[in-house]
Amino acid sequence: QLACPLDLGCHSVLKVTKDMNKKKLSRRSRVKPFLKVVNVSHLLPTRYGLDIKVSTRLTSETLKDTTKKQRVSKEVKRLLQERYLAGKNKWFFSKLRF
Q1: How far is CA 95 from each of CA 4, 10, 13, 80, 90, rounded to the nearest angstrom?
Q2: Rounded Cα distance, 25 and 20, in Å
Q3: What is the chain's Cα-based Rg?
């Protein structure tokens, strides 16, 4: 049995300018999270870390059950949305540049 950590992330948030109206701003600043199980050999260690406290325990069985996964995904989306709108962890919400 190999160790497979859970990967939590979000797809990049769209660019926002001050000329946009409120409706467009709210649509473009939505956070789209993803949860998945990843093989350890596919991870690239970095100095960055994100401390998010999720109320439900995340396991691979949680991701197999669709209702539990949706509930956790909604909670993660809410937490990441709060972080994004507060302006914290800007590096997490930007595109990766190689």
Answers
A1: 25, 10, 8, 16, 10
A2: 6
A3: 15
Q: Which two tokens stand for residue 3?
A: 């160790």
Please report where in the chains the tokens 């797809």 appear, as a residue. 11
| Structure confidence at residue 35 (pLDDT) | 82
| pLDDT at 1 exceeding the cut of 60 | no
pLDDT tens digits for range 34-46 = 888 877 787 777 7
Spatial CB neighbours of 62, under 8 Å, sequence gap ≥ 6: 56, 68, 69, 72
Whole-number Å distance between alpha carbons of 42 and 39: 6
pTM over 0.85: no
pLDDT for 10: 78
